[in-house]
Amino acid sequence: MSAVIEGHHDDHHHGPAKGITRWLYTTNHKDIGSLYLWFSFIMLFIGGAMAMVIRAELFEPGSQIVSPEFYNQMVTNHGLIMVFGVIMPAFVGLANWLIPMQIGAPDMALPRLNNLSFWILPAAFGVLLATFFMEGGAPNFGWTFYAPLSTEYAPPTVTYFIFAVHIMGASSIMGSINVITTILNMRAPGMTLMKMPLFVWSWLITAYLLIAVMPVLAGAVTMMLMDIHFGTSFFKAGGGGDPVLFQHIFWFFGHPEVYIMILPAFGIVSHIIETFSRKPIFGYDSMVYAIASIALLSFVVWAHHMFTVGMPIAGELFFMYSTMLIAIPTGVKVFNWLSTMFKGSLTFETPMLFAIAFVALFTIGGLSGLMLAIAPADFQYHDTYFVVAHFHYVLVPGALFSIIAAVYYWLPKWTGYMYDEFMGKTHFWLSFVSVNLTFFPMHFVGLAGMPRRIPDYAMQFADYNMIVSVGAFLFGLSQLLFLYVVLKAIFYGKKATGQVWEGAQGLEWTLDSPPAYHTFETPPNLEAGEAKG
Amino acid sequence: MYLKKLILCLTALFLAPLSFSAWDDINMTPGVNAIAQEIFGLHMTIFWICVVIGALVLGFMVFLIIKYRKKEGVEPADFDDNPKLELTWTILFAVILVGMAIPATTTMIKAYDDEEGDINILITGHQWKWQYEYMEDEVSFFSNLLTSLDARNNIAPKTENYLLEVDEPLVIPVNKRVRFLITANDVIHSWWVPDFAVKQDAIPGFINTAWTYIDEPGVYRGQCTELCGVYHGYMPIVVKAVSDSEYKDFIQGKRDLKAQQALLTEKLWETDELFAIGEEVYLKNCVACHQVNGAGIPPVFPALAGSEIVMNDKGRQVEILMEGVQGAAMQSYAEQLTEVEIAAVITYTRKAWGNDAGGDGEIVVPKEILDYKNNKL
């Protein structure tokens, strides 16, 4: 070979570029993973600040700090940001960091697409947040944006909202194409599908869900756009359209979306529990099948969000039964995690604490979900704080705790530095107590009859709302501690070993901490050994 | 051991609510009719099943945490599956679910009964009030929030039924099957009275049905449960169940009122009288959007003070009040206000906030509104 090509080859082994261009032009999965995670961290504080405004307004009966109009904008954007700006990007960030390292690939399959999928996200949220400073204010119709409140009766900024949702959707679709392509084509020799780490499995299935439903969401917002600007009547009753159609389309996207936000969490928690139980995961095969069946079922349960729209009874019963079925694979997963701990040798480092809290509190969220599935009883639960309690139990101590657990678990691997275990545990206990203080009483006020999305409430709900608000402020403050622990680890942490955790299995632990900028340029050969992680 | 203390603390945290609040305040209402009570029973059954499952799972977890902590010289086991056990618990889950589905299905069938009622009431959701129309008796009225702005802004004290009181409750007779036909005029609302276990979305272009049968006279309160815009939290529902004779009196009273209003339309009105009535109407119906000072909240809710239409185009202003504005929050008031009220409120807006000086200052009398209605026919 000529010297010129040799020289070029050497360039590749340099570390990252210097300065801001490293982040703007990067095609490196580790850099992009970090970008996603930091983006999601920043959005967590923006969306969290909105939650604090909501809880301050609801601290006592009567108008407190904001107008009903601004309150609705807070409710809407809190939901949108937490779903599309925090949970989803955080999982994509974890996928970027971990999938190549867990399957022994040098990078994601489509690195430039990877760069693009990240960098359009800040643009999307820039557009969304800019609406706060426009005439008419930010979107105020709830994160579920039911027509015609979001079309004929929406503020003029709804068009920016539609544009932002389109961009987020494009980002997610590109991200999932990348994940699928990487997993199906770039696994190390010997890593068959049924030997893949569970996090990789959960993301493979999640990516298919995303590809299936993000276009549906794009369709829904496009129809809104046409109704608003081009005189169509998809959702306008006055023009022969159908407002209920909007809800069917939205929830056909929305229910799989809910699982998009929890399936990767299942993968993460499985890894952490087996590591700190020092015992292989129990029922690997049934774990994979359970995730796959939850994903499939998610396409046939959407109308359980719509039990009160006036469906025929056959519809009510069908969606009630199909929803109840989901309890089976979910129950299998919970029992498998417990069986993994059974006869293990357990230690309780911060990631394990968060993972155990995940299993416990996700179970509570799952059980309230089962109650909500019972259609006749749902007539009483629907659109009350009982629902708010339910989905926050699966999303905060569910999805968010799994992400926090993942950060504690892999942070030493990513940065090469150990976090402060005492501070980590303090963060856990504060979060654990305050998350329950926030969301548990919501079950009660919901059952007692407090509707969701109201800026003010009747006197009998006062005591509990005050407790909830105190819990929420405490939970919000606790997350500042999380930021502190992460920064302290990065700047002042002790050096971590490559193995990091005594019981950790999987390819990423065979690398140095931090791993080189480019890893597995020659794939590891697993033909002989086990690769399950 | 500190773990035990911890468990105690957590239990205390979860049970604390029970100690300072009665069970009724934190649970679903048992309801006042057979179907609501049955749904309540179903809720309690499912609830206790979930509590037992939850307690077993969490209890087992605590056991694992205590029993299998890492100890010197104890090696972890290395089994990683047990197909028989896995099959057993999968079947167990299925059995429990079938056990839940059976009572749920029977209750569902009972709740879903859309036979005609003895009395049929059309309920229409508007931003942000409910309209009730007694279909057999051709009586119709609107039900607005009664709680004052001062109470909401913490200036006046809050009463027991803060945000749950209306100017005109829906009145229904006991011991009659009452069917509700539920729809909406603008966006989606949802009509919920927990005591009846009736929650039905009010959707423009659709008519949903629900029904109730009440044994005991009483006042039952509920709220709109579908986000319907700025004042979603301020459109409560109050239903008064009364004896049959009281109900008949109520309907007769409404009819007499209608006749009286027709007479008033024909009366000769003074500007001051209209202005005074108009101010009252404005504060009740218009102030939420157009604000006390007539400045509105542009661009969504336009200003009336200094508006070209309000100052100089009487005809168009009447038209807007009667027809509403297509594609905007402004609805038609032809049905919800009387002719006197419409004329009065138009007069008020044309005289208030300096519009008098800036514009033609013409007033509108009730007869003109009646003429508008008649010409339309």
TrEMBL record, chain A:
GO biological process assignments: aerobic respiration; electron transport coupled proton transport; respiratory electron transport chain
Cell compartments where the protein resides: Cell membrane; Membrane
Keywords: Cell membrane, Copper, Electron transport, Heme, Iron, Membrane, Metal-binding, Respiratory chain, Translocase, Transmembrane, Transmembrane helix, Transport
Domain called Cytochrome oxidase subunit I profile: residue spans: 23-527
Reactions catalysed: 4 Fe(II)-[cytochrome c] + O2 + 8 H(+)(in) = 4 Fe(III)-[cytochrome c] + 2 H2O + 4 H(+)(out)
Pathway it works in: Energy metabolism; oxidative phosphorylation
Spans traversing the lipid bilayer: 35-58, 78-99, 119-138, 158-186, 198-226, 258-276, 288-307, 319-339, 351-375, 387-411, 427-446, 466-487
EC number: 7.1.1.9
Its job: Cytochrome c oxidase is the component of the respiratory chain that catalyzes the reduction of oxygen to water. Subunits 1-3 form the functional core of the enzyme complex. CO I is the catalytic subunit of the enzyme. Electrons originating in cytochrome c are transferred via the copper A center of subunit 2 and heme A of subunit 1 to the bimetallic center formed by heme A3 and copper B.
Protein name per UniProt: Cytochrome c oxidase subunit 1
The species this protein was found in: SAR86 cluster bacterium
